[in-house]
Structure formats: structure tokens, C-alpha cells
Write a sequence for this structure.
């Protein structure tokens, strides 16, 4: 981006979200993050509590951010949860909570962000999916469904909003060195890494670099795209 923009990163208190927020702040942009329990992670970053399963909470968070930093021009919809379980043991709550947070929550955020973007005739909507949304994964029916749903969400928004110079894209990371990966056993982490052609997991900053590119003027002619940053894990999908 050639001029400072107001950027909102959901789930921005750790992992890919925090790496992205810091990268935007490094570039001189006005950066806000939301999470359910935000910490003061960096004095350049404005942290706001928000439960994106609650539409009123989303509206309230945007009002606070707009008053402090101005209208959101770049939304990075990154917040997500897991409730891993095999299909026959998965409860309705396990499924609905993941979809409501990861997919419907992203929709709520994007719907609210799009209003000022339409008036300004400029905007960037960037949704953080997963290679699991393309490949599937045993024990992650709920998570995979929510991450696959982001693709249809983003592509529909790309068609609906494109005439107003608003892009909507999806980044699909492979395994990344975050708390989510760290919670697995060493055996599980090794099995995942062994499937990656590059033979390693990504650092959060590597995903953040793609997010920053899509938000920049260099990415202005990219919309409706699903961009893998996965070490080759999902090739062919």
C-alpha cells in the first residue's frame, strides 16, 4: 500500500494474526486487532475485545475502531477455533461452534467492514482459510467445512463488490508454527511435517507476507483467488 490504511486483523493476538498485525504496523499503517480476550501485544496496535459470534459485539468493536483509527479499509479475517473429533463422536455443538466462529463470524466481520469500503470505493477483504479446507482431514469435519466455506464466501463477495474496487481473496496456509500446532503431540507434528514437500512447517511471518501483498496496490488486480502458502502440501487443489 502506498499510503497509510486502517487495517483490522481478527484473532490478532497470536500466531498468523499477530504476525500480520506487526507487519502492517511496521509498514506504517493504522492497525487494530480483535480477539475475545485481547492483550496489549504491541503499543502500535489497538486491541479491542470482540466475540465475532455476536453481531452486536461486532458492530460495537467496529464503532470503537472507527472512532480511534478511522474506517477499516483492510480486513484480515483470521480468527478461528478448532473442536477436533472423529465424525461419530462429534457433537452438534462441536460442529456449530466451529462453523459459527470461523465461517459465520468472518461473514459478520466482512459485512460490517464492507459498508465504509463501498462508500470509499476501495477495500481489501482477506480471509484466512487452510489447506484442510481443500484436502479435508480426519477428525476435522467441522474445521474443514468452515474453512472450505470461506472460499465460496470470498468469491461471492468478489463478484458482488468488485465494481467498487473492493477485492476479496483467500489465503490457504499449510501447517504453521503456532499454538494450534504446538498443542499436538511430537508424533503428530512429525507426521504432518513429513507430508509437506518442503519438509518443514511455515513461520507465521511467511503467511503474513502474502496477506500484506494482497492488501497492497501490487495485489489490486487479484480477486476471488485462493492462494496456497503450504509448502506444496495441497498442490493440485
Amino acid at each position: 500500500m502506498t499510503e497509510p490504511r486502517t487495517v483490522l486483523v481478527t484473532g490478532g493476538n497470536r500466531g498468523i494474526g499477530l504476525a500480520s498485525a506487526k507487519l502492517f504496523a511496521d509498514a506504517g499503517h493504522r492497525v487494530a486487532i480483535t480477539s475475545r480476550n485481547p492483550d496489549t501485544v504491541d503499543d502500535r496496535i489497538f486491541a479491542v475485545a470482540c466475540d465475532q459470534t455476536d453481531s452486536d459485539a461486532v458492530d460495537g468493536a467496529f464503532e470503537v475502531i472507527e472512532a480511534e483509527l478511522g474506517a477499516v479499509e483492510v480486513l484480515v479475517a483470521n480468527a478461528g477455533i478448532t473442536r477436533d473429533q472423529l465424525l461419530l463422536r462429534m457433537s452438534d455443538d462441536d460442529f456449530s461452534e466451529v462453523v459459527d466462529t470461523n465461517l459465520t463470524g468472518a461473514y459478520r466481520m466482512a459485512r460490517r467492514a464492507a459498508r465504509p469500503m463501498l462508500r470509499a470505493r476501495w477495500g481489501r477483504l482477506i480471509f484466512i482459510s487452510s489447506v484442510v479446507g481443500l484436502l479435508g482431514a480426519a477428525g476435522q469435519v467441522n474445521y474443514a467445512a468452515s474453512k472450505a466455506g470461506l472460499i465460496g464466501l470470498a468469491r461471492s463477495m468478489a463478484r458482488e463488490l468488485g465494481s467498487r474496487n473492493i477485492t476479496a481473496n483467500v489465503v490457504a496456509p499449510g501447517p504453521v508454527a503456532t499454538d494450534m500446532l504446538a498443542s499436538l503431540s511430537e508424533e503428530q507434528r512429525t507426521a504432518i511435517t513429513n507430508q509437506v514437500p518442503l519438509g518443514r512447517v511455515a513461520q507465521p511471518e511467511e503467511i503474513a507476507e502474502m496477506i500484506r501483498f494482497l492488501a497492497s496496490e501490487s495485489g489490486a488486480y487479484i480477486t476471488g483467488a485462493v492462494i496456497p502458502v503450504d509448502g506444496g502440501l495441497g498442490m493440485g487443489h
Observations:
- The chain has one domain: 6-175+206-229.
- The mean pLDDT is 95.
